[in-house]
Amino acid sequence: MKKLVSAAALCAAITVPTFAAAEEEPVDITMIIYASAGVPFFQPLELGANTAAELLNVNLDIQYAQNDVVRQNNVMETALANGVDGLLVEIWDDNAFDEAVCDAIENGTPVVSFNIDDSEGADGNCRMAFVGQNFVDAGYTIGKRMIADHGIGEGDVVFTPVEYPEAAYAVLRHSGVQKALEEVGAKADLVGVTDRLPEVLTAMTQYLIGNSDIKAIIGLGQQPMMMAQQALDETGMNVPIGGFDVAPEILDGIASGRITATVDQQPYSQGYYSVAQMAHYIRYGLYPADLSTGGSGLIDKSNYEAAVALAGKTR
Fold first, then answer.
1. Which residues, given as ranges, of the chain have pLDDT below 50?
2. Going from the N-terminus, what domains does the chain have, and what CATH number goes with each?
3. Sign of CA dihedral 307, 203, 240, 296
4. Which among 286, 311, 293 is positioned nearest to 86, based on CA atoms?
5. Using CA atoms, how far apart are residues 86 and 227, in angstroms rounded to an integer?
6. What pLDDT was estimated at residue 22?
């Protein structure tokens, strides 16, 4: 376990917030997304965040770390220097943001994580709460479903592509999938494919050409799930697909039967509730709480129609 500021010191630093002088005054919150602008997954998340900001009189500044830990720390430092009232961050690296988050809280600026949390949760980072998915449970759920539906068993290999395999969400989702596979003597092959769709397709296609004996694909992120069907078409292969997140391409695959199921982590809720909780803490001292936005619910052919009209918006 990493060494963090003591619980007593943190409580002293954050249980007496500096409230806005008046309820009608705006609250300034900076939200830092770890990826680059324009990544499809974050569009519903940003919509949720902006909706909460408009409702609650929040000046919301959304920044992008561009998959760079140094850049994210610099954005946090700049926001703090500018006197921001609160920070919303993705803790996608287990070590890179510990000092910055603890320093912010010690100096009276609240921090809540969203979408991605330290793999040790509150034991690994000083953040006050996490709004997002239980990645291990979600990985286990989709792994069990793929095993049950497609007879994955002893000695089988499942391709598990993900944008950035070192990111906390990837490590934890993979561990959940691997736990399910180990129960039947199978294993997962984790491969990084980036978050840029043309490069995702190239990386997945190249892997499939060299590994035509895989039993299934379980995409650990939205980008590989969006490209999985096309990658199979490029190679002439036909194996079942399952994985994470919602997009029109993924729901089309479920409708056609090529994709078995996907885990919906509800990014709109991650954006909305992280902003709402932070605003209420700054104004009223209502301490933010961990909030699970999905981990065991699957979208499949039995229920996908309800998500079609909302894909890319609030789902």
1. 1, 3, 6-9, 11-12, 16, 21
2. 7-133+266-295 (3.40.50.2300), 135-264 (3.40.50.2300)
3. negative
4. 286
5. 36
6. 53
Report the amino acid identity of residue 166: E
**Is-contact 275 52, C-beta < 8 A?**
yes
Tokens for 96, please give them: 């890179």
pTM for this predicted structure = 0.86
The CA distance from 170 to 240, in Å, is 20
Q: How far is CA 262 from the centre of its chain?
A: 14
* pLDDT of res. 309: 82
Q: Tokens 């830990």 correspond to what residue?
A: 69
- Rg of the chain over Cα atoms, rounded to whole angstroms, equals 20
* pLDDT for 205: 98
CA distance 34 to 36: 7
CA distance 211 to 291: 39
Give the C-alpha separation, 221 to 275, whole Å. Answer: 23
- Give per-residue pLDDT as tens, 49-96: 999 999 999 999 999 999 999 999 999 999 999 999 999 999 999 999
Closest CA to 218 of 275, 273, 162, 290: 162
